[in-house]
Design goal:
Helix content: over 70%
Number of domains: 1
Number of strands: 0
Largest sheet: none
Radius of gyration: 13 Å
Strand content: under 5%
Shape: flat
Structural class: mainly alpha
Number of helices: 2
């Protein structure tokens, strides 16, 4: 159904969107970047589980 490249772009979109939605104020830009990436990964994982479980 989806090609490999399409799946990658979809996951990148989920991570970015989740990170933007869940970002909290950090002490500096580095911590904000790390926090955004981690929260985006969590949001993407939760979305994957919700769709496939």
């Amino acid at each position: 159904m989806f090609t490999g490249r399409s799946r990658i772009y979809r996951w990148i979109g989920f991570v970015i969107a989740g990170g933007c939605l869940l970002q909290a104020t950090g002490c500096d830009l580095f911590l904000q970047t790390v926090q955004t990436g981690l929260l985006g990964a969590i949001a993407g994982g939760m979305y994957f589980l919700a769709r496939n479980v």
